[in-house]
Design brief:
alpha+beta; five-stranded antiparallel β-sheet; elongated; 27% strand; four-stranded antiparallel β-sheet; 3 helices
């Protein structure tokens, strides 16, 4: 055997242009899929955060109103307060439905707003569900205080207020177990309705208010205001 014969050098394999293009295309596909998944997760997170924030806002509004309607009082200084005022009673004729009532606000840092106060629930000109509170008339005579306004919910498109008139409210006989829902509560009715139902439609995101109606949400709050007349309703 001739030892002088040299072995042929091994041929080095390299990627062809087609193989390189395929690898680049696959790499781009994987990266784009990862980015799409990443941005999809971000959108999901933003939507969940928006839902959580909206739920928290509505929960706080409901809790405040629950505390208010559970502490209604009959009158202040002999004057009865629980009624739906007519538009003529206020200078702003653009206001929608509203309720004027008195309730026990508990102990407040401002003396005039402690305990018995006068309040009005309505939607203001900036589409906000608001609670306007006037100080106790007794304290107001000795130490004048300013009116307080609490914004409970923003971007409200509409508000509908209904009142459940218990059977035979103020009547002894004959017994009528049907009762009825009223859209207004006149001062002549006296007392309080058994239930107050608020139906609100509001925009979850004010930036999208010009888009489709799926950005709007409807809420229904129902509050028991008089435990003395709730039994007849439950027995129906």
């Amino acid at each position: 055997m001739n030892k002088n014969i040299q072995r042929a050098a091994p041929i080095k394999k390299s990627f062809s242009l087609v193989e390189a293009l395929i690898a680049m295309a696959l790499f781009a596909l994987v990266i784009s899929s990862l980015f799409a998944l990443f941005f999809h997760n971000i959108r999901i997170h933003e939507q969940l955060e928006s839902i959580r924030e909206c739920s928290e806002i509505t929960r706080r509004a409901h809790a405040r109103l629950q505390g208010v309607f559970s502490k209604l009082i009959y009158d202040i200084e002999g004057r009865h307060f629980f009624y739906t005022p007519s538009i003529k009673q206020f200078s702003n004729n653009k206001e929608g439905p509203s309720i004027v009532f008195t309730f026990d606000n508990g102990l407040d840092r401002v003396r005039g707003f402690s305990y018995d106060v006068i309040a009005k629930l309505y939607v203001d000109q900036e589409d906000r569900l608001s609670l306007m509170i006037w100080p106790n008339p007794v304290d107001e005579k000795t130490k004048p205080t300013t009116v307080r306004k609490e914004v409970l919910l923003e971007n409200v498109e509409s508000l509908k207020i209904q009142f459940w008139k218990a059977p035979n409210l103020g009547i002894t006989m004959p017994l009528d177990k049907t009762g009825e829902w009223l859209d207004t509560w006149e001062q002549e009715l006296k007392g309080h309705p058994t239930l107050v139902r608020l139906t609100l439609k509001f925009r979850k995101d004010v930036k999208k208010q010009k888009e489709a109606n799926d950005n709007s949400q409807e809420l229904v709050f129902c509050f028991v205001t008089s435990v003395d007349t709730i039994e007849a309703l439950l027995l129906e």
